[in-house]
Amino acid sequence: MALLEVKNIKKSFGKTEVLKGVSFTLEKGQVLAIIGSSGSGKTTLLRSLNFLETPDEGEILVGGKQLFSAGVKYTDDQVRENRLHFGLVFQNFNLFPHYNVLENITLAPNLLNIASPEENKVTAMHLLEQVGLADRANAYPYQLSGGQQQRVAIARAWAMHPEVLCFDEPTSALDPELTGEVLRVIKGLKGEDRTMIVVTHEMDFAKSVADVIIYMADGVIEEMGTPEEVFDHPKSEKTRAFLQGFHESY
Question: Are the C-beta atoms of 213 and 38 separated by less than 8 Å?
Fold first, then answer.
């Protein structure tokens, strides 16, 4: 059974259809990269999975448990509980400036009693080691580079033990020299049964780290397959045009 099942997700804003029926499954431990032009629906899909947007139609299941079905009224507590199945790393870090690195990571686990404060601290320090920032535990966000802040944001998201960790263009706010360090961290997190969805414009990264590639266009999945299938042998004319245009612009 797939860890994540997304069934016929549709979302409109006013008269604008942004998602026109998106369906896919993801196995535990897989990395999915979602590519596509701006406006194709990638971020709206990610926000729908994280319950930051409410789809007009469709279902979302994790581990066989239905977390969302269009038309069902969910209480705020239910939405908060369902959201815990997912983690989201934003483009712009969103760290709390008045908390140091360790406090940023342990704040939510402590508030939600994920474990004891001491256990949450141990987990946070382990994650900081994984992202190469154990020596900056007491630093404040303003003392960190953008790349370091994003690595803290990744550790903070993982500290909640989500079943699926989502990244919304995690390097788009970074200078090119900082992009590589964040991508290396994400690549290093692959494995250990970690399941990830990455919306990205970094094609080489997507090709090297993803198990599955989705190319979105005009609110639908235009093409889905392995990196080799999508990048080297695309079936869709839209996919071919996108990849050719991307390579010509870089």
Answer: no
Residue (of 132, 134, 150) closest to 95 by Cα position: 150
Which residue, among 58, 53, 41, 80, has the nearest Cα to 6 in the 3D structure? 58
Residue given tokens 């960190």 in the structure block: 144
Residue 106 · residue 118 · CB < 8 Å: no
**pLDDT tens-digit profile of 41-57?**
999 999 999 999 999 99
Distance CA 187, CA 195 (A): 12
Cβ neighbors of 124 (< 8 A, separation 6 or more) are 102, 105, 106, 109, 137, 155, 159
Beta strand residue intervals within 151-211, DSSP E: 164-168, 196-199
**pTM assigned to the model:** 0.92
